[in-house]
Amino acid sequence: DVLNYIISSLTYLTVNTACYRKIYDMKKALIPVKDIKEGTSCAVLLESRGYRGNVICPGTPDNDVHQVRLVDFGTPHSFTELFRLDAYYFAMPALAVKCSLAHISKTEGDPIWPDGASKYLEESLANCFVKVRTVTAGHVPKVELYTELGPNSKNSVYVNRELVYDGYASWVE
């Protein structure tokens, strides 16, 4: 079951395959990161909890706000303070995985996804158990999404197909 997902568009979404929130022992001394650049791995504090992060847009000399993607959730946040991350945490794989939906594409002739497509997908996944099936692996895996109303539900809805039925996408074999 997917516990967390981020939908930026139907082209890419991020799924979190495990519930892993507190990753850094804040009792240890927090050592600020020096030489911050794009791709810098760090620990960040969000609501008094520590999280693994990766700098996606460093601040400037005039503005020390850094854009950081939380590695285990896929969400971007702004931070002014970044801390060193113990080597132990570098070895753990990211729990959020960027992927795209299998078997669908933008409707023929449309250069962009239709208005409301991301919102429709979010609403389709809300208040449901979501199952993810990887169809093809690679740099950006292609996935099929299925929703169920409960853990013992016998009825699954194939979300990728529903996007086509409701006019948000075209089917691709």
Can you describe this structure?
This protein is mostly beta strands and 173 residues long. It is 12% helix and 34% strand. The strands form three sheets. Strands 1, 2, 7, 9, 10 and 11 form a six-stranded mixed β-sheet that branches. Strand 4 and strand 5 form a beta hairpin. Residues 18-24 have low confidence and may be disordered.
Helix share, percent: 10-25%
Number of strands: 12
Order of helices and strands: EEEEEEHEEHEEEHE
Poorly predicted runs are 18-24
User: How would you classify the helix and strand content by structural class?
Assistant: mainly beta
Radius of gyration: 19 Å
Main β-sheet description: 6 strands, mixed
Alpha-carbon distance between the two ends: 25 Å
**Strand fraction:** 25-35%
What overall geometry do the principal axes of the alpha carbons give? elongated
Number of helices: 3
User: Average pLDDT, to the nearest integer?
Assistant: 80
Q: What brief labels describe this structure?
A:
single chain, 173 residues, four-stranded antiparallel sheet
Strand and helix layout:
Blueprint: E1 4-7, E2 13-16, E3 41-46, E4 49-57, E5 66-70, E6 76-79, H1 87-90, E7 96-101, E8 104-105, H2 117-125, E9 129-136, E10 142-148, E11 157-158, H3 159-165, E12 170-171
Parallel strand pairs: 7-10
Antiparallel strand pairs: 1-2, 2-7, 3-4, 4-5, 5-6, 8-12, 9-10, 10-11
